[in-house]
Design brief:
mainly beta, seven-stranded mixed β-sheet, 117 residues, four-stranded antiparallel β-sheet, 52% strand
Length: 117
């Protein structure tokens, strides 16, 4: 069993930055960030899988995922934020690199990110 705890969400103006952090209680191959806006499906944002990093096209160049194996944390640095980035952001852990929510076994409780225009 892996427990995930997210932190770092909040309210920011468009063009601003936020840094999310996910602390994991155990080791997994892949840790990803997903997000879900009201009335929309949960969507993939970024993942750290082994030595590889993957990003959704909508966030490339603005969001950066980083992993600290010593601390067992995965951070998501979010720059140049847009109102359409507003969502609940979830940390997820799984056994392989994947972009679908069903491929992940463990989930955090989520943290709200709100970007005002």
């Amino acid at each position: 069993q892996v427990q995930l705890v997210e932190s770092g969400g909040g309210l920011v103006q468009a063009g601003g930055s936020l840094r999310l952090s996910c602390a994991a209680s155990g080791r997994t191959f892949s840790i990803a960030w997903f997000r879900q806006a009201p009335g929309k499906e949960r969507e993939f944002v970024a993942s750290s899988s082994g030595i590889n990093r993957y990003y959704a096209d909508s966030v490339k160049g603005r969001l950066t995922i980083s992993r600290d194996n010593a601390k067992n944390t995965v951070d998501l640095q979010m720059n140049s934020l847009k109102p359409e980035d507003t969502a609940v952001y979830y940390c997820a852990a799984g056994r392989k690199a994947a972009t679908l929510p069903r491929e992940y076994d463990y989930w955090g409780q989520g943290t709200q990110v709100t970007v005002s225009s």
